[in-house]
Amino acid sequence: MRRRRPRTPMSAMDEINLTPLLDLTFLLLIAFMITMPTMEYGTNIKAPEMNSEKLPENNFVSITLTKDGTYMVDRDAVSRKELITKLEQLSTQNPKPQLLIRGDGSRSYNDVIGLLSLVRRSGFADATLVTQAESTGE
Prior knowledge:
Elements: H1 19-41, E1 60-65, E2 71-73, E3 76-78, H2 80-92, E4 98-103, H3 109-121, E5 128-129
Parallel strand pairs: 1-4, 4-5
Antiparallel strand pairs: 1-2, 2-3
């Protein structure tokens, strides 16, 4: 039979209990897993002001995407195919006209990006997005 040694005050210090340490580690891990996504999307930023240059007064063409998805070149409603041919004709002019892109605020981001992609494929390197000035609310 094995004999047990008598317990002394120093015998308790030769063993380290890892359970509280692991509990703390898992608690911190869970806390970071929960808070990191909210920190990413909850970042408070201040957007730049829209102090842009004046719109051109001559040699420009306005392309509009209306609320119901109709494309308009200046004041004429056109289909998507007609828009492509019109843009290709405009890109061959010398000097090229400045394109002013207007999109209704209710249209999706994807629709406006699709229009910009169409403009780029037609031979225009850049276009100006026209926005309204923000109201000050005063």
